[in-house]
Design goal:
It is a single chain. This protein is of the alpha+beta class and 452 residues long. The chain has a single domain, classed as Outer membrane efflux proteins (OEP) (Up-down Bundle). Helix content is 66%, strand content 10%. It has 11 helices and 6 strands. The strands form 2 sheets. A 4-stranded antiparallel beta sheet has the order 2-3-5-6, with no helix packed on it. Helix 5 runs antiparallel to helix 6. The chain is elongated, with a radius of gyration of 40 Å.
Length: 452
């Protein structure tokens, strides 16, 4: 990375290093790195869209919302007339229409009974039931929005995580290449009489350490690919790789602006507020059970199979004359053992419980926004420090390698400088993507959805 070969004076040694570097790069690039670079490129936009289209969490929330829509329709059916038709097979052997059957012989007539009922008013009870279900539907829709927000958040994090491990894997490969060059320099320095065997041993250990780190980062990269596939809601494992496009950052808001936006737009809180309204409507609905209920009814009867000696119908007809009744029914609850009183109090306590749960959700959102905002600001300062450390370590390594090639410093100093540069490089890469992941968390906490 730092053109170490150019720092060595003998031309023969520079040629040897160049040849060694080419061989090492060929070996590395022919293996896992080539597989990583040849993965299927995918954009963040495509990942989020695939997750929203196929992830089970979104499907579950959508189905719950549709089911609640049908529940609203069920409650709305109370506004329309209900018509029923029943066909009864009767067995009679007792008094009938003021008389008795001859010799008390049983008969088995059939009865056709059409009935129409229409609620006129329950003095608010029906309206409160429908309103409660509509508030529950609003809550379900907000839960669907929260599920979409959560799924897109996990897709963003998985994408950033994959990009991070891609860069860390490339850094691990570069670290191994630098360690191999340092090992060759230690060998050449020993051959020229400038070094000791210990320098070569330490350089070999550094090389083995970087090789192990390359294996670890390769495994982490494959795990990140599996996490991305899971976040997209797919079953087939595809070795995706990021397309390298920069991430679109969220708005540059202050802490107060973020908190206000979260309280106004976070679907989780809006769903809880809708549940509060639903519980309040339930309390009103239970209270109206003490009120009268006015309804209209119409009922018809058509019976056949009754002997003419009882029905008075013409011989051979076997029919009982049809009859019907209609009217208006007013029912007033007088005393039901205190049931409505207890139900009202229970509904009121459940409403208070939902209200406190909503307050808890609000407090958690405010706390999380504050913590993530502080984490974001801290991570930005950390990233600036990481950049300074990396620049310092790179310059220090350049100077140490020059003196090491001239035999002016020992192998311990050179290995320390190499290790510090490798560590600072990995830390800088990881912290860059940690900052992006904190931004993902902050966007999710305030309920902000990016427009791709």
């Amino acid at each position: 990375m730092f053109a170490k070969a150019d720092l060595l004076r003998p031309f023969r040694f520079r040629a040897l290093l160049a040849m060694g570097t080419g061989v090492l790069a060929g070996i590395l690039l022919s293996g896992p790195v080539r597989a990583a670079e040849d993965g299927v490129p995918i954009a963040r936009k495509a990942v989020v869209r695939a997750a929203l289209a196929s992830h089970p969490l979104v499907s579950i929330a959508y189905d719950r919302s549709r089911a609640q829509t049908e529940k609203v329709g069920t409650e709305m059916s109370a506004y329309y007339p209900h018509i029923t038709l029943s066909l009864d097979q009767l067995f009679l052997n007792s008094a009938f229409i003021g008389g008795v059957f001859p010799d008390y012989q049983p008969i088995a007539p059939e009865l056709l009974n059409p009935t129409l009922t229409q609620d006129i008013t329950s003095f608010g009870g029906r309206h409160d039931r429908v309103r409660a279900e509509r508030f529950r539907l609003r809550s379900r829709r907000e839960e669907l929005a929260e599920a979409r927000l959560t799924v897109s958040f996990h897709a963003d994090v998985a994408y950033d995580q994959l990009a991070m491990f891609e860069h860390l894997y490339r850094a691990a490969l570069k670290n191994e290449e630098d360690a191999a060059l340092h090992f060759r320099m230690a060998q050449e320095r020993l051959a020229r009489g400038f070094g000791v065997v210990t320098d070569v041993t330490m350089a070999r250990l550094l090389l083995e350490k970087t090789r192990l780190e390359r294996v670890r980062q390769g495994n982490a990269l494959r795990k990140a690919q599996a996490d991305l596939v899971f976040a997209m809601g797919r079953e087939t494992l595809v070795p995706y790789r990021t397309d390298g496009t920069p991430r679109i950052s969220g708005p540059d808001w202050s802490l107060d602006e973020m908190t206000a936006y979260a309280l106004a737009h976070r679907p989780l809180l809006q769903a809880a507020l809708a549940l509060d309204r639903e519980r309040e409507s339930r309390v009103d609905e239970v209270r109206t059970r003490n009120y009268p209920h006015l309804s209209l009814f119409a009922q018809g009867f058509l019976m056949w199979g009754v002997p003419p000696t009882i029905s008075g119908a013409p011989a051979g007809s076997g029919l009982f004359l049809p009859a019907f009744q209609s009217g208006v029914a007013l029912s007033v609850p007088i005393y039901v053992g205190g049931e409505i009183l207890h139900e009202t109090e229970r509904a009121r306590m459940e409403a208070r419980r939902e209200s406190e749960k909503t307050r808890l959700v609000r407090l958690r959102i405010i706390r999380n926004v504050r913590k993530l905002y502080d984490d974001f600001e801290t991570q930005k300062e950390t990233l600036a420090l990481d950049q300074a450390r990396y620049d310092h370590a790179r310059e220090n390594l350049r100077l140490v390698e020059r003196r090491f090639a001239q035999g002016l410093v020992d192998g311990v100093t050179a290995v320390d400088a190499e290790t510090e540069m490798l560590t600072s490089r990995e830390r800088l890469i990881a912290d860059r993507f940690r900052l992006s992941m904190i931004q993902d968390s902050l966007d999710r906490e305030i309920g902000y959805r990016r427009d791709f």
